[in-house]
Amino acid sequence: MSLKVDLETNFAECVLNAGKIVLGDTQRKEMNPELRKKQRENILKAICALLNSGGGVVKAEIENKDYNYEIHGVGLTMPSIFKDYLDEMQQGELFLIFVRSWNADASGVRIATLCSNLYYRYRASTDVMDSKEALAFLKGKTQTLRNTDSSSLSPHKVQVGVRNEYNIRASAAAVFARTQLQYLEKLNFTNSLHVEFKMFSTEESQCFHESLPSCVSAFANTEGGYIFFGVHDETHEVIGCEKEKIDFDMLKACIDFCIGNLPVHHFCTQKHEIKYAVKFLEVHNQGTLHGYVCAVKVEQFCCAVFSEMPSSWQVKDNCVKQLDTKQWIAWMMEADPVLPDRMVYTPESIYKELFSTHKGLKNLINKEMRSFSQGILIFSRSWAVDVGLQEKQGVICDALLLSQNNTPRLYTILSEWDPSWKGYSRKVARVLKQTLVNTGGYTGKLCVTPLIFLLNPDNTATTLHDLDLQIYPNSYNLRTTQHMEALLRSLVIVLLGFRSFLSEELGSEVFSLLTDKQYELLSKNIRMTRELFVHGLPGSGKTILALRITEKIRNVFHCQPDDILYICENQPLKNFVSQRHVCQAVTRKTFMKNDFQKIKHIIIDEAQNFRTEDGDWYEKAKAITQRKKDCPGILWIFLDYFQTTHLSCSGLPALTAQYPREELTRVIRNADPIAKYLQEVMQEVRENPPCNIPPASLEMVHKAEWAQGIPGYVEIMEYLDMEDMVFQVAKKCHFLFRNGYSPKDIAVLFSKASEVEIYKDKLLRAMRKRNTSQLDGESDLLVQIQDASDIMANHIVLDSVRRFSGLERNIVFGFNLTAEPDIFHNLLLCLASRAKKHLYILKVPI
């Protein structure tokens, strides 16, 4: 019984078709038990998938035609976790179950799960953990990494009978060490925390398949133990399995297969396997071999052992998919922000550096915080820069305090006095408030109180703000945790947000968020990091960060756009950056032809594709930024060796000389199927790197993190000839237009720039040959095809892969890609990583 997503439903939400079902209390009792069980499992799976996917409707065809909902009832027993989530309705011959989205706050866990399949031993029984117990167990395992006290490994600590348990375990170990037992011998211990007795069923291998997974999971997740197959669980008498029915090799293989296939999850780095031992103990009856007891010893496991994958589903890519163990644990343990019950300073890297550099600052801050029992103090080298204002000389740092039952406070710490400080601090506080509201979306009553302190040379502090601060009504205090959480969410948008390129497309402000690592690099003290090499995987946001660093340079050093130079290899990317109006932008060739006497700071992007054919660009960039030896400029270089698309010398320093160096390893641009394809191509590059790439630079692929949950599409298609390929691309473009995409979403990329003009007219003619009944002919004529020089314009881009480097579009077609064998996969990676949602790799047989 398979579940299918109903794509032709009239409901404006996800509908799962569960097939046919018998309904009614009496009717279901009378049906075949196995079929009844399968139908129920199918419905529960559908409900679980919708709970984890935003809700929806389960639709089933009623098999018994005389069924009446009001008269016969339903006859489906629902788990208690489904309470308050379901509504039912009969609609003719259909039965509909309306499912609302899972409520993590009410349930205490983030995901709906029918069964965790995570077992533990409690006294003498093997029990499955419910979702809350499983979450507590998993969290306990992560804490165990910091605390090796083995008593914390059991989800339920047994505080009584410790001595008895020790004796039972010792007795079980002694029996396991024996070679033979006597028929009907009564063992002197019982089922316990560490011992399980089981009888053989009529089919020995089936016995192991049914009972061994849960038993091994339970013992491995608790404190280890012994399973004796062939000992009566009530009388404790040795029965064994008759010798004629024992096939040692088959049973041992069955046990090994069963245990070897149990899902495990590691929080540690050792990655141990489940440790166990199997023995067949002879059972004698009056001196004659009667049969065997199978004894399995299971060691306590370092992390978590499941009997099978957790019974939890979601709807993804129009399919109902079971979460694997890793996905389930990640979802279960994903943490909500928790407000601290004490005063917390953050970010640690910033405040620790400030405290060590400026003596007396720590004492000043600690003294000011004594009157607050809890809250968050957020340090910045300049909150002015963080909200888009220019940095002011003499500011040691700013710190924003958020504390319940108080208004937000902005502390500004100075190293020198200036009469303009009061106006400056008020302006920063005012702009911060406006940004929290206008950009961050905070809707509550809000004010930011500015406080100013002068840190004196003798490490004492002087208060510069008026002690009689303006008093706001109590309603402006952050009165509840909800107010605190809402303001923190707005603050995240302010700190991590950047204006998305979608803003131009949609005609309204759209913001995206930086990754943690991007923000870490952006918040670096650039006065102390004048030169930096940033290695970033494809789609990790190198160009975005380069532009944000340019804006920061402008505000920190009070620069004009003409003081900052952005250098890249291709003209379209140079044009795109020029439109930002934050700096000068040139290509490498232009850079090598001119002097740039006024330039103070340089940002270099896509440096892996630079060449030395026009001279040593790196030495020239260093010479420009180091004109003032006592106050050198900024030189940050962004690159990705994986996307090197030539075999010449790049002019970059040796990898060991690229210091200091940082890495961007979280890939955030591409949809899931494209990201999976990129991983495959990157592995090819790593295993067969071109001669001009240092192999060590490619090892960062092992650190890659991939953003998940973004639907998309990858298709590799082969055509008879180029004419057929052009026709099919035009057909696909029309299909995409009918589904809401526009020309500005599409890029068609070739191996060489010389191929572009050859196929431009052919593609344009193919676009205009289609049936006018499919789309208004006038609209068809409006479709323009241009190169990537104006990437933001509403036209289909037709260009080479190399010229499109550093840019992106939602949909990318790659036309019959060819390249030197040594760099073919590099060029393919550069092509594929340009696509955000749809990727089409098109081939023609040679």
Short structural description:
This protein is 32% helix and 22% strand.
CATH topology of the largest domain: Methyltransferase, Cobalt-precorrin-4 Transmethylase, Domain 2
CATH class of the largest domain: Alpha Beta
**Which spans of ≥5 residues are poorly predicted at pLDDT below 50?**
146-161, 502-510, 775-781
Q: Whole-number average pLDDT?
A: 88
In whole angstroms, how far apart are the ends?
A: 45 Å
What would your notes on this structure say?
With 846 residues, the chain is α/β, with parallel strands linked by helices. It has 5 domains: 4-107, no CATH class; 119-305, Methyltransferase, Cobalt-precorrin-4 Transmethylase, Domain 2 (2-Layer Sandwich), CATH 3.30.950; 343-498, no CATH class; 518-693, Rossmann fold (3-Layer(aba) Sandwich), CATH 3.40.50.300; 712-843, Rossmann fold (3-Layer(aba) Sandwich), CATH 3.40.50. 32% of the residues lie in helices and 22% in strands. Strands 8, 9, 10, 11, 13 and 14 form a 6-stranded mixed sheet that branches. A 6-stranded mixed sheet has the order 18-19-20-21-22-23, sandwiched between helices. A 6-stranded parallel sheet has the order 28-27-29-30-26-31, sandwiched between helices. Strand 4 and strand 5 (94-99) form a beta hairpin. The longest helix is centred in the first third of the chain and has 19 residues, at 33-51. The two termini are 45 Å apart. Keywords: ATP-binding, Nucleotide-binding. InterPro entries: P-loop_NTPase (IPR027417), Poxin-SLFN/SLFN_N (IPR031450), Schlafen (IPR029684), Schlafen_AlbA_2_dom (IPR007421), Schlafen_AlbA_2_dom_sf (IPR038461), SLFN_GTPase-like (IPR048729), UvrD-like_helicase_C (IPR027785). Residues 192-305 form the Schlafen AlbA-2 domain. It comes from Lynx pardinus.
